[in-house]
Amino acid sequence: MPERTVRFYIDQGLVPPALGKGRSRYYTPDHLQLLERVKTLREQKLSIEEVRQRLHAQQESETIPAQQWERVVLHPDLEIMVRSGAPEGVRALAQRIVQLSGEWFGEADGQSLWDQHEV
Predict the structure, then answer these.
(1) pLDDT digits (tens, 9 = 90+) for 12-48
(2) For the segment 67-96, what is each residue's pLDDT rounded down to a tens digit?
(3) 21: phi then psi, degrees, rounded to nearest 5
(4) Alpha carbons 86 and 119: distance in angstroms, whole number
(5) How many Cα atoms within 13 Å fall on the side-chain side of residue 19?
(6) H-type helices in 12-110, by residue range?
(7) How far from 16 is each of 39, 51, 55, 114, CA to CA, in Å?
């Protein structure tokens, strides 16, 4: 699907904007699934308004749990994202990365970064 089409669907309120800012914007699997749904409905020759109504009706019938992400800035040019509710092993790995980045970038310890963001 062309980027221009995706932007149009976002402008029309059919699809939420990408997450993140600037060059670090990204789309989740939920975004992609919704884009596929819009594409299918448009291929059925439905108008934008009809697509909007169908999507709204579908959203009312099924609630997709939103995923919350925690952002930890390790350096102005480096950050990591950890999903809230991630398994303990993933959180331990994130903590270790924070500690290593503190050592690498000359922080007394990486814990100060960790404390700011509580991953």
Answers:
(1) 999 999 888 888 888 899 899 999 999 999 999 999 9
(2) 788 888 888 888 888 888 889 999 999 999
(3) -130, 150
(4) 10
(5) 14
(6) 29-43, 48-61, 88-104
(7) 15, 14, 12, 30
Q: Which two tokens stand for residue 105?
A: 């970038």
What is the residue-wise DSSP string for 101-113? HHHHTT-S-THHH
What backbone phi and psi angles, to 5 degrees, belong to 29? Answer: -60, -30
Q: What does the alpha-carbon distance between residue 117 and residue 8 come to, in Å, rounded to a whole number?
A: 35
Structural domains of the chain, ranges and CATH numbers in brackets = 3-61 (1.10.1660.10), 69-117 (no CATH)
Type of residue found at 102: G
